[in-house]
Specification:
Structural class: mainly alpha
Shape: elongated
Radius of gyration: 16 Å
Largest sheet: none
Number of strands: 0
Number of domains: 1
Distance between the termini: 29 Å
């Protein structure tokens, strides 16, 4: 496949709830490549730990999940257009 369709793919990870990190990744890619072809908004938030422990978030769990799973679209899309 690589010989038929040579691709340069770079995978980046970041904390999608951190606006500064999102802006830094977008700026880095545009500086290095000149443009962004594809953005995969595949953010997700899960919980881990003992079931008997209370969940601990700086925001309420609903706000935290919405910021990560929905808010990322609003934060990444304008910078990538």
């Amino acid at each position: 496949m690589q010989t038929l369709h040579p691709l340069k793919i770079e995978l980046l990870s970041l904390d999608v709830t951190d606006d500064t990190a999102v802006e830094a990744v977008i700026s880095t890619v545009i500086a290095n490549e000149g443009h962004i072809d594809v953005v995969v908004n595949n953010a997700g938030v899960g919980c881990y730990g003992a079931l008997t422990e209370p969940l601990r978030f700086a925001l309420s769990p609903d706000e935290h999940f919405a910021r990560a799973n929905v808010g990322i679209i609003a934060r990444t899309s304008p910078g990538c257009l």
